[in-house]
Design goal:
It is built from six helices and 19 strands. By secondary structure, it is an alpha+beta fold. Strands 7, 10, 11, 12, 15, 16, 17, 18 and 19 form a nine-stranded mixed beta sheet that branches.
Length: about 240
């Protein structure tokens, strides 16, 4: 369920403020009845909306990869000192939602789409889509801690075991590693490493399933290819 003015704006008919004006003027009908209440909620799957006597057209489905830079929150609402990643999305595509999140201090691959079913499928744990990150820590990981990360660290208040399916050191002068996750608890990487007394200095998602960030500049976005879409929506691997 979404607000009626957002449904109109997301269709590309007009901006949300103009949609409010049309609703107040009695120019919008919901299932054949004139609606003038601005906060009306609608279900785009079942409700019929007309504006000035014309059926509201559904916006075309878009599937995009954004290279989210550090300093942007994965939310429509940003604080006074924050920036929303939606500032990086062209106005005609701002009806999209993110598939998962990257926190303000993290960067990398963020998949966005206005297809709710697609978002659900690529974020649901049963689809087993691995996400790969490159992280830099304040000190090298001890061998015992690497094993602990693979076996799992208990996170609270979820009381769930957060595991890294792969932890590999990368060449360089700083303690940098490539890690892979299947699960996606809130700030999982940072929280598990804090539990083991490490501090994450940088965190960059390099891939989401078959989708690679390589070649896409910070703040840029591109459509997903047909091959990437097929890979994201492929049946989950057997347990």
């Amino acid at each position: 369920m979404i607000r009626l003015n957002k449904a109109i704006a997301d269709s590309g008919y007009c901006a949300r403020r103009k949609a409010d004006e049309l609703i107040a003027q009695g120019k919008v009908k919901l299932n054949g009845e004139v609606v003038t209440e601005l906060g009306t909620k609608v279900n785009l799957e079942t409700d019929q909306i007309t504006v000035n006597g014309q059926p509201l057209q559904s916006p075309p489905k878009v599937y995009l990869l954004l290279h989210k830079p550090v300093g942007y929150v994965t939310s429509r609402k940003a604080g006074k000192t924050q920036k929303s990643f939606y500032e990086l999305i062209p106005p005609e595509w701002r009806s999209v939602d993110p598939a998962g999140r990257l926190d303000q201090d993290s960067s990398g691959a963020l998949i966005v789409s206005n297809d709710g079913d697609f978002i659900y499928k690529v974020t649901h744990p049963r689809f087993h889509l691995p996400k790969v990150y490159e992280i830099t820590l304040d000190r090298p990981l001890q061998e015992g801690d690497i094993q602990q990360l693979k076996e799992g660290v208990r996170l609270m208040p979820e009381n769930k075991l957060a595991k890294m399916t792969r932890v590999e050191p990368l060449n360089g002068h700083r303690p940098t590693y490539q890690v892979e996750l299947i699960t996606g608890f809130n700030r999982q990487i940072r929280r598990t490493l804090i539990e083991l007394r490490y501090r994450v200095l940088s965190l960059h998602r390099v891939s989401f399933g078959p989708v690679q960030i390589e070649g896409l500049g910070a703040g840029d976005l591109r459509p997903l290819t047909d091959t990437e879409l097929s890979g994201l929506l492929a049946p989950p691997s057997p347990e």
